[in-house]
Design goal:
Blueprint: E1 2-5, E2 8-11, E3 21-27, E4 33-37, H1 38-46, E5 50-56, E6 59-62, E7 64-68, E8 72-76
Parallel strand pairs: 1-5
Antiparallel strand pairs: 2-3, 3-4, 5-6, 7-8
Length: 95
């Protein structure tokens, strides 16, 4: 299974889903940047092919798939004592 640290997240800027994550990204072990649409990251996690995490206070906080109402699926990363999604606090990346 491949593991990736998420360093940035891009959000939708228009429409009814404004603020929703659309891409996540980071830098791989070779120093190359990577960007992945959220739906591909969800497929990778559900399929057991990929694992994503964010680093908060030097601790790896896993990125997980959350499903609401059996239809709305999104990524979340909540550490110990955090009530909000840490992915939403990551900087935007212009690509």
């Amino acid at each position: 299974m491949k593991r990736f640290q998420v360093l940035w997240a891009n959000k939708k800027t228009r429409g009814p889903f404004k603020g929703e994550l659309k891409h996540i990204g980071g830098i791989d072990s070779r120093g190359n940047s990577w960007v992945l649409p959220v739906h591909k990251a969800i497929e990778g996690i559900k399929g057991g092919r990929c694992e994503f995490y964010v680093l908060e206070d030097w601790q790896e906080i896993p990125v997980t798939v959350c499903t609401l109402n059996k239809s709305e699926t999104f990524l979340t990363s909540k550490g110990h004592g955090y009530l909000y999604n840490l992915l939403e606090e990551l900087p935007e990346y212009a690509f």
